[in-house]
Amino acid sequence: MASSESLFGNSFTGASTANATAGNDDDLTANNNIDIDVDLGKTLITYRVLVSRREAGAIIGRNGDNITEIRNNNNVKAGVSKVVDGCIDRILTISGMVDNIPDTMVAIARSVTIANAETVKQADEKGTDPTNLITYDFFPLKPLTQRPLPNEPAYANTLFLRLLIPNSQIGTLIGKGGSRIKNIQETYNVKMVASKGFLENSTERLVELQGTEENMRPAIAAISKCLLRDYQGTATTTYYLPSAAMPAYRRRREGRGTGKEVIKKITFPNEYIGALIGKRGSRIQEVRRLSSCAIAIESDSENGVSNHGEREITIIGTRANIDHAVEMLNDYYQRERQRREEMEE
Where in the chain is the domain with CATH 3.30.1370.10? Predict the structure, then answer.
């Protein structure tokens, strides 16, 4: 197990530090409300957010343009952890003043929602199911809250974030008898759910936040101030580090779990099939090896090309393993499409 950077910055202004220890803080401790009068707006805070490879791509944007814009517009530091082969989890780290965090987090969540909505639109045009491209059936990426369905009007306006919170601070957010987390949900009309268990090899837990842009901003501001009350509690935290050996789908692949095998068929544009297969079949072989799925790609001679110029790929495995295989194939597809678009410019 390894420790990472502190969740919260230690560069506090003199005024902020003094106010944070004033009587208002004692009142907050005694009462599980979220009305914090202490001015913590200039205090530094760092958030860690769990994202998938695909979501990270939407946040970063082409040539890093989107994340650069988010940094510049909000005067924050933001970066995504490196890709780990065989793992689709990545960590987004955001550091800045409390006043700048809500707009930053909303911009990040909006980037993912816009990308997902575009995927849904493209799937509708092709008559395919986008579910496996925009959601996940395994922890820690599996939704903790009920989200609108892709075909519902509310889908395009609903944002979500997977916050990584040290277990030592979960009590600060939940409050006595769940009073504080309930207060946040009711006051700001958001959904907020904490995972029961830790992320593997860590003492961090997931807190999923869901709501509209207008409601997410004040909710995030309130969460930041609640967490800053107890920032000392992060000192003994062991932070989650994405690893190919950690996620639950890896345990299933390695035979430490079982699941009923199912068959799933997906399609990709015919002109990208070569990129999915890779040189001498290297990429498709890697997908088979890491997902433990049987994967077959129909050839042109077998009528594998549809009227829309697409090829069908058949995947056989457990649902969790199929999800992983689809994610890897989609990752290769998105990277190749981006590469070709950049060459055309």
Answer: 248-344
What is the C-alpha to C-alpha distance for residues 173 and 179, in angstroms, rounded to an integer?
9
**What pLDDT band is residue 27 in, cutting at 50, 70 and 90?**
very low
Classify domain 14-234 at the CATH class level: alpha beta
User: Which tops the pLDDT comparison, 90 or 291?
Assistant: 90
What pLDDT score does 197 carry? 86
CB atoms inside a 10 Å sphere around CB 116: 22
Say if CB 91 and CB 56 are below 8 A apart: no
* Token code pair at residue 280: 């001498």
Answering whether pTM is above 0.85, one says: no
State yes or no: pLDDT of 186 exceeds 70.
yes
CA end-to-end span of the chain: 44
Q: What is the DSSP letter of 129?
A: -
Contact 294, 315 (CB under 8 A): yes
How far is CA 198 from its chain centroid? 16
How many angstroms separate the Cα of 84 from the Cα of each of 59, 88, 96, 114, 247? 17, 7, 26, 25, 12
**In this structure, are residues 216 and 105 in contact, taking their beta carbons and an 8 Å threshold?**
yes
234 class by beta-carbon count within 10 Å (0-12 exposed, 13-18 middle, 19+ buried): buried
What are the Cα distances from residue 102, in Å, to 161, 178, 315? 12, 23, 41
Tens digits of residue pLDDT in 291-315: 888 888 876 544 444 446 788 888 8
Overall CATH class of domain 248-344:
alpha beta
Q: Can you list the positions of beta strands (E) in the chain?
A: 44-52, 77-80, 89-97, 159-166, 191-194, 204-211, 261-269, 294-297, 310-318
CATH 3.30.310.210 positions along the chain are: 14-234
Q: Would the pLDDT of 34 be above 70?
A: no
Residue 204 has pLDDT above 80, yes or no: yes
